[in-house]
Amino acid sequence: MTVDALTDVEGVRVGHATRTGGGWLTGTTVVLAPEGGAVAAVEVRGGGPGTKETDALDPRNLVRTVEAVVLTGGSAYGLDAASGVMAWLEERGRGVRVGPEPSHVVPVVPAACVFDLGRGGDFRARPDAATGRAAVEAAAASGAGERVPEGCVGAGTGAAVGPLKGGVGTASTVLDSGITVAALAVANAVGSAVDPETGVLYGELFQGPVDHPEARVHEAARRRLAEAAARNAPPPLNTTLAVVATDADLTKAQAQKLAGTAHDGIARAVRPVHLLNDGDTVFALATGARPLDPSPLALNEILAAGADQVTRAIVRAVRTAEAVTGPGGDWPAYEELYGAR
Predict the structure, then answer these.
(1) Do 84 and 130 meet the contact criterion of CB atoms below 8 Å apart?
(2) Statement: the pTM of the whole predicted model exceeds 0.90
(3) Which mean pLDDT values do the consecutive 10-residue runs of the chain (341 residues) have?
(4) At what angle do helices 81-91 and 129-141 cross, to 10 degrees?
(5) Which residues lie closer than 8 Å to 22 by C-beta, 6 or more apart?
(6) H or E element at residue 124
């Protein structure tokens, strides 16, 4: 049975660490690969990224697999969360073997951050190594194929999409070949997820017939969003992050192609996208459990599905987010304004 989440890729687990209250509105999300790692790649298209260990994922470089990927709040400060994940992995002998003893490993833990500094009221309240450790422990403690909490949790705790509250969302699909493709996204963008003329989420326009909000509902929502935006400081930096995972047996080059085309999923759900003050980054993970047809075009259905699941994950992130009003700002929630429909 699938749960429409990144954890539908067998062996992949997700854990969140969330900090709210007392000036905090931030957190960290860890995607934990099966033991032994997963082939990994990355594509960065935002002009203001905050990342760690992304160069190691270049197909020309040595490292082929990683044990975990960290998505975190706290801007570049929050990248400290990755050190907590590294320590947890080292204790278990998981990482690149660099010496004769099983404990002689260096875990390669790619990480990317979103900007949420000060959204809880305290600019210095941001994830650290302890937050990262809590998130990876939560991932390890979760069951196989477990549902993934969405909305204002983990790296999505302080996320905002334009004037709306953002968050974490996830989605998956099983292809006719039996291969699973799934995504998890942290929606935190300079651009908007909502068509200003209709109130429809851009991403839902790619998912079949759309139920448009009534004109009076949309007008009330526009007024509420304008009021909230006027009270908030202009967002200097924002970022949408995603992890796309599959159980297909991919090379690093194929995984990098998957990470690149998955950015199309962000572009469908957020407009404008990939701006200079965005840090949009997509990681790809391939567990290799299912062989890929040797046809040179067999990868195409995985590429298309990856972009589709990123779009769906961003829609889920916005729809599951809850409104936040506090000392750091005012961010209404989409379903508060428009309803579930």
Answers:
(1) yes
(2) yes
(3) 96 98 98 97 95 96 96 98 98 95 95 96 97 98 96 98 96 98 97 95 92 94 93 79 98 98 98 93 98 94 98 98 95 94 69
(4) 50
(5) 120, 122, 125
(6) none
